[in-house]
Design a protein that fits this description.
- The structure holds 2 protein chains of 2 kinds.
- By secondary structure, chain A is of the alpha+beta class.
- Chain A is 41% helix and 10% strand.
- Chain B folds into 5 domains: 60-147 and 157-182, no CATH class; 246-367, no CATH class; 374-502, no CATH class; 523-745, 3-Layer(aba) Sandwich (Rossmann fold); 750-993, Rossmann fold.
- In chain B, the strands form 8 sheets. Chain B has a 7-stranded parallel β-sheet, with helices on both faces. In chain B, strands 12, 13, 14, 17, 18 and 19 form a 6-stranded mixed β-sheet that branches. In chain B, strands 27-32-31-28-30-29 form a 6-stranded parallel β-sheet, with helices on both faces.
- In chain B, helix 37 packs across helix 38 (961-968).
- Chain B starts with a helix and ends in a 9-residue tail after the last helix.
- In chain B, 42% of the residues are buried.
- Classes of the chains: A alpha+beta, B alpha/beta.
- At the A-B interface, helix 5, helix 9, helix 10, helix 11 and strand 5 of A face strand 1, helix 3, strand 3, helix 4 and helix 5 of B.
């Protein structure tokens, strides 16, 4: 095998101008836990070196197009041949009544919809699906992949590249996973709303225009009479250096960063900076203004 | 040169000089000078628009600029003016500093480099806009460098908002980075083994944030991808849906159950809150009922209300574990919390949610927290007087006398017993309910309070010194014993009366003007006398700070007489003043208190040691100068003075100066300071004067600087300013000439003579001219004699004004004329109280000299109008002078040119630098200010040099006013008719004329 691939390998795939490139340049692709679950699925196929090649295909932008439909991903990937390969990944759809059960389960807790709508996949959402007797993340047998390349192995590196690109898409939009399983975002939201809504009639809609007022600026030439003076609004600024209400508030609001260093999250290395700089600023503000008392 | 000056003035070293191009308002000839620079008069300045100019500038890197702006003194040193744009950037720098102090910054990536970026939340955003709106247009004058140096007609260059934002951006990065470098802070975790060949970006990022080099070293594409992810991470700080008319709002309700039960259930309720009217709340329950894509709540439309609410709740759950928990419900509308959870929510989640743009409504007791555990003191009127202080029996307290007090432990408005307190210690949560009111009470405070109870049981008596009691009674936030703050002070009997009088609430009983006072006091002056006497009875130091011209001198003279009249004690008082006012004191004492024995301690032949002591004891008042006091400390300390009075007390404004230290060491029963400058605005000066009056009352200088001067002067802390005002107000009496009650007491025109001495240089010249003339007229008669006399008179007047005016040699002016020195001092007070002044002289040469000298000494513009000023220019000057606070504060006029026709009512101070010896002419000049349109009282000052012809003629006019009018007519010709003997009498220098 080594000899055959040894001959084949140096051939570089044809470059793609506007390919879809993975944003991740190093390490794993897919930063959110659900995307990682997705990638883990791919990695469970024991693809060997193809996995790495697929990843570098994804990074180089060999994936030309990707199209997600219910239960189906269609994609074109540029390989060594002049014509791109056609790839299809088919998913076993969740049956309608199972969907209903899953949505029922999701509707029982606002956190599912709340997290999904704020761009996150709720942690225990898998439970909602398994309670309904189905699975949020397809297993090996739920997926059928097909690629027009001559590689006898399935999944091949082209399929792997598509997987990786999909992982990044999931990062941004967790609802895509549902689409693969047979329901669009709109359908799920609609269904959830139906569940929540009481029998009260909805009120009529009235359009209201809101035009944000704009701050107009007049050119310097027209401001000569107050050219040197500052405006009265300056006194509204009233700076008052003081300690924060909550220390490291910005970090607490941000939560974990999408990066880690060794095993610690990037954000967990930052509190010291807030402590040092905040302290320095407060010291600066309280400093004996030597010049004042000179 | 610019660089050297900067270094010399501020001890700073900017990195380099650069030539820049600025668009400035210009005339055809050149750029207009900026308005705070003193310009030479030129009438034909016609603004032709903006033109680009090359300008030499100092270039700072962001950090150096930031530190420089923060380090600049609040008050520029004399001769230096801070431009509005500089003051603007100082404010902007302090805003940046505030953001960093509040830890409002985050790591970001810009242009492939790691940068600290300020995080500007909603409230701060409006402040940034205020900054942008108030940006002086001159800050936009800098032209982009490049081949085309013409300013495009379209919008070119940054907008004010962009400029302000980029300033805050750059300074934040510079300061945070610099502080990390200085502290040698390493952000990235240690590497386990050997370093990998290529450093992964996250690690590089941390290093670049804390090091000199911000650049990330990786291929552009990788950096871009990394940067996008970081950017997405940071975008979580933005409010979840900025455009929607509603936002999610959380309201915390305290348990409404029975009082005393601190284990009730708290509730966080969820609402949609209208952004334009924050009082409009839609309960989440209502939102869950909506079925369509769009709903109308409270007449406001909202799309997908449920999803809107859910998405925001999802975002909120990331910050607040409480919210995350409540999302376990299908339709969350409220969340129940235990007290300890409620405390966490109040302390941590609520501020974070608020910063992230959510609405948060908290109970009012939390919002106006501050009900702390503390003491309520009750000061006891000393009944058994002998026990306390022998002085009290005479109604004299003195700041150091001891007062007993009762005390109670208080929390907010309620009092706590020790038993109740001991119950509280078992609480695990620092939120407790006392008599139905919730309060936050950290366990440390409970411990401190229990410690206080125990200590008191051991020790028994409770007493503090009166000084402390007053400080506390007037609202100083201070702790006694074990850091337990005093929340409230009550007093009874005489101490209560005293506190209420001191705080200005109680009326101070009026004192009769002593019979030995040869004159009348205006009603407010009698009040001043009563006030001085009251503070004297308590042995408190007093600062009389009335506006210049209101008569501090006579108030003090009346006070000295009053003291003599009511007390059997007869020890001398010491008055320390600048040389320039010694004569004035002498004259005023002569006139109003001839019964007082006054001794001047000054000059080369002054007494010393025991001779001085004996002589001083024979007098009532010893007058000396600051300079002499510093030299003769030993002699002065031989006497225990009744009073030490400082006139022009701003002379001790520098606490570190030797002169200040000496003066403060002189012992006296009573200390009094007189000043006409608004002391309350110059805090280091205020501290120093208070430290003289009531040593220790305001605490050590360093602490005062930290707790008051810095927050008030640099950061305009209103609360502290108010507290300081309350604390110092009892010891400072400052009436303004614009106070309605004062105006009622004053005539519209207040005339004051300003007496001064000649310098020895002036005296020598003066003597020589007189001798020369007397010799010459001996052998002449008729027109020749008259001519000689008139010429000599002119020379003498010139000498009194300034030797340089007589010598016409263009020599330097400083310190050579007693009159000029006094004028400078008085004009400084005019400036300090934001007044304007007219200065009349009959010598055009003097006017020109005054203009340049005053501009240089006082750092502000002086206009000068003389006979040769063209009409157009003259009109322009008058208009500028009259144009409100921005116009020049001083207007020098030659008596002939400015004597009539002009309307200069912007001035309320008039100085006659030299005399015309004709009241009619002088009055006409005075009337430039005192005429229709003048709403303020006008204060007229006429300079009189003691012992010279000025003095003699002034007395002649005063003595026989009517006669004088007849004799003098309209000129000075009458003097030429005097006999030589009379002339000798009038002109010869008397011994008291000279400074030293």
């Amino acid at each position: 095998m080594g000899g055959y691939w040894g001959y084949y390998e140096p051939r570089r795939p044809k470059e793609v101008e506007d390919g879809i490139k993975a944003k991740s340049r190093r390490g794993a692709i897919g930063e959110k836990w659900w995307s990682k679950r997705w990638v883990a699925l791919l990695e469970s196929f024991n693809m060997g070196a193809r996995l790495g090649r697929g990843r570098s295909y994804a990074r180089k932008g060999q994936v030309i197009s990707i199209e997600v439909q219910k239960g189906l991903v269609r994609s074109k990937v540029q390989g060594v041949r002049s014509k791109p390969y056609e790839i299809e990944i088919r998913f076993a759809l969740i049956a309608d009544d199972d969907w209903e059960k899953a949505i029922e389960a999701m509707g029982s807790k606002a956190i599912f919809a709340a997290k999904l709508l704020s761009g996150e996949m709720p942690k225990d959402i898998e439970d909602a699906f398994s309670d309904a007797g189905c699975s949020l993340f397809p297993g090996k047998k739920d997926i059928k992949t097909d690629c027009s390349c001559p590689d006898w192995s399935n999944p091949c590196k082209h399929i792997a590249a598509v997987y990786y690109i999909m992982a990044e898409k999931f990062d941004d939009d967790p609802f895509l996973i549902f689409k693969l399983l047979g329901r669009t975002k709109e359908e799920i939201i609609e269904a959830l709303r139906e569940r929540r809504a009481s029998t009260l009639p909805a009120e009529e809609v009235e359009a209201a225009d809101d035009a944000p007022p704009d701050l107009d600026e007049c050119p310097l030439e027209e401001r000569l009479d107050h050219f040197w003076e500052f405006g009265d609004e300056l006194q509204l600024v009233a700076p008052r250096p003081r300690p924060p209400e909550v220390s490291c508030a910005v970090l607490k609001r941000l939560g974990d960063a999408p990066f880690s260093i060794d095993k610690s999250n990037l954000a967990s290395n930052l509190p010291r900076a807030y402590e040092v700089a905040g302290q320095a600023a407060r010291k600066m503000a309280a400093k004996n203004g030597a010049l004042d008392f000179a | 040169m610019l660089k050297d000056e900067m270094a010399a003035i501020f001890g700073m070293n900017p990195p380099g000089v650069k030539t820049i191009i600025c668009s400035l308002p210009s005339t055809k000839k050149g750029p207009l000078p900026s308005p705070w620079l003193i310009k030479e008069d030129s009438a034909d300045e016609v603004l032709s628009g903006l033109s680009p100019w090359q300008i030499e500038a100092l270039a700072f890197d962001p950090r150096a600029a930031f530190v420089m702006l923060l380090d600049l003194p609040v008050h520029p040193p004399p001769g230096i003016v801070f431009a509005s744009s500089l003051r603007f950037w100082i404010a902007a720098a302090r805003f940046s500093l505030e953001l960093i102090a509040r830890e409002q910054f985050a790591p970001a990536i810009r242009d492939g480099a790691a940068r600290w970026t300020p995080i500007i939340d909603e409230d701060d955003q409006t402040r940034v806009k205020s900054l942008a709106k108030s940006l002086p247009p001159s800050c936009l004058a800098l032209e982009e460098e490049g081949p085309s140096r013409k300013r495009s007609k379209e919008k070119g260059g940054p907008s004010p908002l962009q400029l302000v934002e980029s300033f805050i951006d750059l300074t934040t990065d510079a300061f945070v980075r610099w502080s990390l470098i200085t502290e040698k802070t390493k952000l990235e975790p240690d590497l386990g083994g050997r370093p990998p060949k290529a450093k992964p970006l996250p690690r590089q990022f941390l290093r670049a944030l804390a090091g000199e080099d911000p650049a990330l070293k990786a291929p552009l594409k990788e950096v871009t991808a990394f940067s996008e992810k970081i950017q997405r991470w940071l975008s979580q700080l933005k409010p979840p849906s900025p455009r929607a008319p509603f936002r999610t709002c959380f309201r915390l309700d305290a348990p409404t159950g029975p009082a005393e039960a601190s284990d009730g259930v708290w509730q966080v309720r969820i609402f949609l809150q209208s952004k334009d009217d924050k009082s409009l709340l839609v309960p989440a329950e209502e939102v869950w009922k909506a079925r369509s894509n769009t709903a109308i709540f409270l007449k406001r439309k909202i799309n997908n209300p449920q999803e809107h609410l859910l998405a925001e709740l999802g975002a909120a759950s990331r910050i607040s574990p409480e919210i995350e928990r409540c999302l376990q419900d299908a339709c969350p509308a409220a969340l129940e919390l235990q007290t300890h959870e409620a405390y966490r929510f109040l302390r941590e989640s609520a501020p974070l949610l608020e910063q992230n743009g959510f609405g948060v409504l908290l109970p009012s007791w939390w919002e106006k927290r501050g009900s702390r555990l503390g003491l309520k003191l009750k000061l006891i009127d000393p009944e058994d007087e002998t026990e306390i202080d022998p002085q009290i029996s005479r109604g004299l307290f003195g700041l150091k006398s001891i007062v007993k007090f009762d005390w109670e432990l208080a929390l907010g408005d309620s009092t706590l017993t020790e038993v109740e307190l001991r119950d509280l210690i078992h609480l695990k949560v620092p939120l407790i309910q006392v008599r139905g009111e919730w309060v936050e009470l950290p366990p440390e405070e409970i411990e401190t309070a229990i410690g206080f109870f125990e200590k008191k049981r051991r020790e028994g008596t409770d007493a503090i010194c009166l000084e402390e009691a007053i400080r506390l009674g007037l609202g100083a936030e201070m702790a006694i014993e074990n850091d337990l703050p005093v929340l409230k002070v009550e007093a009874e009997g005489r101490i209560r009366d005293m506190l209420s009088r001191l705080s200005g609430k109680g009326e101070i009983e009026a004192v009769d003007v002593p019979a030995s006072f040869m004159g009348t006091l205006r009603p407010y002056q009698t009040k001043g006398l009563s006030w001085l006497s009251y503070l004297h009875r308590l042995r408190f130091g007093a600062c009389l700070a009335d506006d210049m011209g209101l008569g501090k001198t006579v108030e003090l003279i009346a006070f000295l007489l009053h003291q003599r009249a009511i007390e059997d004690l007869r020890r001398p008082s010491l008055l320390i003043c600048p040389m320039s006012v010694v004569g004035n004191w002498q004259r005023e004492l002569d006139r109003f208190a001839p019964s007082l024995h006054v001794m001047i301690h000054h000059g080369a032949d002054r007494l010393s040691d025991s001779e001085f002591g004996q002589e001083a004891e024979r007098n009532d008042l010893v007058i000396t100068t600051y300079a002499t006091a510093q030299r003769d400390e030993e002699s002065l300390s031989m006497i225990r003075w009744q009073n030490v009075v400082l006139d022009e007390a701003q002379n001790i404004k520098n606490p570190a100066a030797k002169q200040t230290k000496t003066v403060k060491r002189i012992k006296a029963d009573q200390r009094i300071a007189l000043t006409g400058t608004p002391v309350e605005n110059r805090l280091s000066e205020l501290w120093s004067i208070m430290d003289f009056l009531n040593p220790g009352y305001l605490g050590p200088a360093k602490r005062f600087h930290e707790t008051f001067a810095l927050p008030i002067e640099r950061y305009r802390d209103q609360e502290r300013a108010e507290r300081l005002r309350r604390m110092t107000q009892p010891f400072i009496l400052r009436r303004l000439k614009t106070d309605p009650s004062i105006i009622r007491d004053l005539p519209d025109k207040v005339e004051t003579k300003v007496y001064y001495h000649l310098t020895s240089e002036q005296a020598t010249l003066y003597g020589a001219v007189v001798e020369d003339m007397l010799e010459k007229i001996e052998s002449s008669a008729g027109i020749e004699r008259r001519g000689l006399i008139l010429a000599a008179l002119t020379k003498l007047k010139q000498i009194c004004n300034h030797p340089a005016l007589f010598l016409q040699d263009g020599s330097p002016l400083d310190g050579r004329s007693g009159k000029l020195t006094r004028l400078e001092e008085m004009l400084e007070e005019v400036l300090a109280s934001e007044d304007k002044a007219l200065i009349f002289t009959q010598f055009a040469g003097m006017g020109a000299m005054l203009k340049h000298h005053l501009q240089e000494k006082l750092g502000c513009e002086a206009l000068f109008l003389h006979g040769k000023t063209p009409k157009k220019q003259r009109d322009a000057m008058v208009q500028r002078f009259q144009s409100g606070q921005d116009g020049p504060p001083f207007f020098i006029l030659s008596l002939k040119a400015g004597g009539f026709g002009l309307n200069l009512t912007a001035a309320s101070r008039v100085f006659h630098f030299d005399r015309w010896w004709n009241p009619a002419v002088e009055n006409q000049a005075t009337d430039r200010a005192f005429r229709i349109g003048q709403h303020k009282n006008v204060f007229v000052n006429k300079f009189v040099c003691m012992g010279t012809l000025e003095d003699r003629i002034d007395r002649m006019i005063e003595d026989k006013k009517e006669l004088a009018e007849a004799v003098i007519g309209t000129g000075e010709g009458w003097l030429t008719e005097l006999s030589t003997e009379d002339l000798r009498n009038v002109l010869t220098l008397r011994c008291d004329a000279v400074e030293d």
